[in-house]
Amino acid sequence: MKKNNVYAIIPAAGSSSRFGNENKLLLCINGKTIIRRVIETIIESDIKYAVVVTGCYRTDIENIIISEKIGYVYNTCWESGMGCSISAGMKFLSKKFDLQINDGIMIQNADMPFVKTATVNLIIKYFFESDKLITAPKFKNITGHPVIFNTIFSKELSELSGDHGGKKIIKSQKDKICFVKIQSNEIIADIDYKNFS
After folding, report:
1. Looking at the DSSP assignment, which residues form a beta bridge with residue 143?
2. Class of domain 6-196
3. What was the pLDDT predicted at 40?
4. Sorting pLDDT into bands at 50, 70 and 90, what band is 195?
5. Alpha-carbon distance 84 to 55, whole Å?
6. Is 16 helix (H, G, I), strand (E, B) or coil?
7. pLDDT tens-digit map of 54-91
8. E strand or H helix at 36
9. Residues β-bridged to residue 181
10. pTM score, two decimals?
11. In this predicted model, what pLDDT tens digit does every residue of 87-126 receive, in sequence order?
């Protein structure tokens, strides 16, 4: 099947509750905030466009990077969880672009600053080359991010709610997944606690 473009959704709407009053996405690693690292990695990859979904810390995150390849959308129900943010991002992309069958929708968590652009491009490459509908990276049998969904799942992604992200779709489509073996833990290493360093 012919595949064309990959669009990314970066959910960044949460309150970072494990960090108290701090926004973990604005913490710095080697002089650069976590959210900036994630956005730069994605827009420097072979994606066509990315949307960052904001919420609790909207004013801190929106327009942190200005690029033709990136947009921002506010998730009014950000407190509901990840599913609602993915839904907001999917609806934004569907309105902005004439998405085609077999385009890809990439989901990349905003608190995963160690993922490399080369890794993202490898996952995109497998998505284009595989006849599977979902492409996901694996490290030591652990599925990580980013994950790319064929636009066949656009409706399901736009209807996600609560704290249920794309895992619900993945679990129901096990025979339609192309897994990409990654040799480092970058695709599973996130920032959830202050002692991440």
Report:
1. 138
2. alpha beta
3. 96
4. very low
5. 11
6. coil
7. 988 888 898 788 899 999 999 999 888 899 999 999 99
8. helix 34-43
9. 138
10. 0.93
11. 999 999 999 999 999 999 999 999 999 999 999 999 999 9
Q: Where are the domains of the chain?
A: 6-196
Q: Are strands 70-74 and 49-54 parallel, antiparallel or unpaired?
A: parallel
CA contacts within 13 A on the Cβ side of 6: 27
Measured between alpha carbons, how far apart are the two ends of the chain, in Å? 43
Give the position of tokens 């994605």.
42
CB 114 within 8 A of CB 189: yes
Q: Tokens in use for 140?
A: 């030591």
Contact 42, 50 (CB under 8 A): yes
Task: Please check the confidence at residue 2 and state whether its pLDDT lies above 90.
Answer: no
pLDDT tens digits, one per residue of 138-174: 999 999 999 999 999 999 999 999 887 888 899 899 9
At 127, list the tokens: 């998505």
Residue 69 in contact with residue 49, Cβ under 8 Å?
Answer: yes
Kindly report whether the peptide bond that precedes residue 11 is cis, defined as omega within 30 degrees of 0: no
Rounded to 5 degrees, what are φ and ψ at 10?
A: -115, 100
**Neighbouring C-beta atoms of residue 26, cutoff 10 Å:** 16
**CA distance readout (Å), 137 to 164, 193, 196:** 19, 23, 22
